[in-house]
């Protein structure tokens, strides 16, 4: 469920959800953005898993 929310957030730049879910998704989305900025092979593989 959180994976879908993070995917939608990154694709559409905003989502409608509850505050509790949003707090959880925020941390996951920030982690994905950090992995994307690193750009190495290891980072890409971590992001896909």
From TrEMBL:
Pfam families: Ribosomal_L17 (PF01196)
Keyword Nucleus included in the entry's annotation: no
Sorted UniProt keywords: Ribonucleoprotein, Ribosomal protein
GO MF annotation terms: structural constituent of ribosome
GO cellular component terms attached to this protein's record: cytosolic large ribosomal subunit
An example Gene Ontology biological process: translation
UniProt similarity note: Belongs to the bacterial ribosomal protein bL17 family.
Record protein name field: Uncharacterized protein
Native species: marine sediment metagenome
């Amino acid at each position: 469920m959180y994976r879908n929310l993070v995917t939608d957030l990154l694709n559409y730049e905003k989502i409608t959800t509850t505050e509790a879910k949003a707090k959880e998704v925020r941390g996951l989305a920030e982690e994905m953005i950090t992995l994307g900025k690193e750009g190495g092979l290891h980072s890409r593989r971590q992001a896909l898993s």
